[in-house]
Amino acid sequence: MHKVVISGSGLYTPAHSISNDELVASFNAYVQRFNQQNSEAIECGEVQPLTESSSAFIEKASGIKSRFVMDKAGILDPERMRPYLPVRSNESPSILCEMATAAAREALQRAGRTAADIDGVIVACSNLQRAYPALSIEVQAALGVDGFAWDMNVACSSATFGLSAACGLLQSGQAKAILLVNPEICSGHLNFRDRDSHFIFGDAATALLLERKDLASSNQQWEVLGSKLATRFSNNIRNNFGFLNRAEDEDSAAFDKLFVQEGRKVFKEVCPMVAELIETHLAEHQLAASDIARFWLHQANLTMNQLIARRVLGREASEQEVPVILDRYANTSSAGSVIAFHLHQQDLAQGALGVLCSFGAGYSIGSVLLRRRNLDFI
Ligand code: CO8
Fold first, then answer.
1. Which atom of ligand 1 is the closest one to the Cα of 24?
2. Please, what are the domains in the chain?
3. Could you tell me the strand order of the sheet in which 353-360 lies?
4. Rounded distance, CA 330 to CA 75, Å?
5. Residues lining ligand 1, judged by CB closer than 6 Å?
6. Mean pLDDT for each 10-residue chunk of the chain (378 residues)?
7. pTM greater than 0.70
8. Ligand 1: distance of its center to the CA of 19 in Å?
């Protein structure tokens, strides 16, 4: 069985950022207008008044200070409150393809590879803008990769599950190099009129190049020592948008088919599951938590990550051990843990161990154990 390394990573960050204050100002303008327009119905108890949002709550409850988005004006317009992403012709690259290829090009460049070196492309993300042709095949064509491509979706855990699938192809000798990309426009499926969740998500795309260890030539690599995956069905994070909506008899208004969650339940149920999975994974490799230099955790909620790290380490974790990027990026679904990895790995020494871990809807959890390998050291 061949060994596998991550030989390069890439990140695409959208040009626009929205601060909590900007988001809350737009939400509160919407609330004030709604309450004004419905004042009589509210007065006689027929309609519930809406309550304003607050920046202080958002930062305290989630750790999020701002988020990057593909379109800022449409989201912040209280009359619209959804991104404006115009339709493109079939002859133009799709917006997800553009984000994916930008991240992919950086990963290739860091790995010292070109499209000619790649055998396959996996696009793994939470939301695909169409059923077919597969986005991954569009990305494959845009990059000029020969071989094969497929799309997959395991919500926030798409990247770690995709990484595990890529490793299988490399270990068995079916491929020498696989490009894994995670383009996420979470703002497309977020209800910016929902006080409980309007602040949660942002947009970004990440990419990882995975290669056979004996063939990889980039100086800085991460050997994949193993991955552990788990899923357990839950209705607590849900999105009912799908191709059968138009066949349903009920009024399938677009706003009914957006992201919904029971945030408290998710928090309570997922944290222990994640800590247990990481502990079991490390034990299977005869490792203790203290052997791990860095945990690149899924970036949904700061307190959640601190709690998971405390359970695994048996003490408070430093920000160096468990880096935070959700303060600037918010929850970018599958891209989150990979952004943390991409931005916070250069400083680690030869032989350092790290855990890349995602968790989210499904529920789904993926843990990947990595070891730093610097070629100029060998
Ligand atoms: N402003 C002010 N106050 C507020 C606001 C607000 N915006 N929202 C709620 N409050 C109030 C509530 O009314 C409540 O008040 P009271 O106590 O008087 O009733 C109080 O604040 C507490 O409310 P909550 O219990 O809801 O608040 P929490 O402390 O639980 O924090 C969080 C809410 C931040 C959502 C938290 O529960 C959380 O982060 N949970 C985990 C969520 C999580 O990790 N989800 C993962 C989902 S992502 C995923 O899996 C991928 C899906 C695919 C992506 C799709 C793209 C869209």
1. 7
2. 222-377 (3.40.47.10)
3. 148-152, 120-124, 177-185, 203-212, 4-12, 220-231, 364-374, 353-360, 294-297
4. 15
5. 53-54, 57-58, 61-62, 126-127, 155-156, 186, 189-190, 195-196, 201, 237, 259, 261, 263-264, 266-267, 300-301, 304, 331, 333, 360-361
6. 96 98 98 95 94 97 97 97 96 97 97 96 96 97 97 97 97 97 96 95 98 91 97 95 81 70 93 97 97 98 96 95 98 98 95 97 97 76
7. yes
8. 17
